[in-house]
Design brief:
The protein is mainly alpha-helical and 109 residues long. Helix content is 75%, strand content 0%. It is built from four helices and no strands. The longest helix has 34 residues, at 62-95.
Length: 109
């Protein structure tokens, strides 16, 4: 149980760090994105560990699993739509000739 409490404590610190991250330039944005991606990857690895362990998952009742599934579905669809959007944007950028250093492209969602 102590392990779970430590994980929660560290994750709450990560959330605060993300919320308070000072973004000064493109490099700090990339650093923040990298940190957030690592935080997501760690959480997903933990969920995968739980979901593939019947002993853990049997502790959730049907109602809890229904609510979890509903929340996961929304989160998954939102994330995958974000992934598609930026994958398509990157594919387009890779087709375009490189821009001049001072020229900026603005993408609108």
């Amino acid at each position: 149980m102590s392990e779970e409490k430590d994980w929660v404590k560290e994750t709450l610190k990560s959330i605060e760090k993300i919320k308070n991250w000072k973004v000064d330039d493109r490099l700090s944005l990339v650093s923040k994105l990298t940190y957030m991606n690592a935080a997501l990857a760690g959480s997903i690895a933990g969920w995968n560990s739980w979901l593939t362990n019947a002993t853990v998952m049997e502790r959730f009742n049907k109602e809890e699993l229904d609510k979890l599934s509903e929340a996961f579905e929304k989160l998954t669809i939102d994330f995958l739509q974000l992934d598609i959007k930026y994958t398509m944007m990157m594919q387009q950028k890779l087709k375009e000739p490189e821009e001049e250093p001072n020229k900026k492209t603005v993408y609108v969602a």
